[in-house]
Sequence to fold (167 residues):
Amino acid sequence: MVDSVETTSTGISRRTVTKAMAWAVPAIAVAAPVPAFAASGRGPIITPGAACKAPGNSCNPIRKGYSVPATVSNPTNKDIWITAIVININTSGISFGLNPIPALPWFVPAGGSIDVNFNATSDNSANLDFQLGFSVTWGHASDGSDTEHDPIQVTVTVPATPPDCCK
Fold:
């Protein structure tokens, strides 16, 4: 004859712990891709200088437009390439072309920096107060095939009478 004894537990059962662990595993799997993306490193740091004006044709290679000198720094341990720049903010009412100097792509070595110019060219170099913004595409391949990085936004205010770039 077998005696049957009923027991009551006041703690957490093994079944409850097992259920909780089963739900916790997918959360870890969902978070796993984040380190893979983060491993590509932080992007370049772009520090713009004061915008200047290129009046008339006196400032070759900038012709009638505005220039924004900048330093592009690479704080990572991987080489970086700046492969595309688009003017995406322009409150001047003037249509601008883009003439970056040096020509793209820009190579920024790991731990290094380069000095560049974001140049907005036009048939008009009027004295205007406006904002000019550039969307900068970057990656680790010179041909732009590395597309897993968000673009960097660089926005500057051009004063109504900016300094002359040629002086």
In short: The helical segments are 14-31, 33-38.
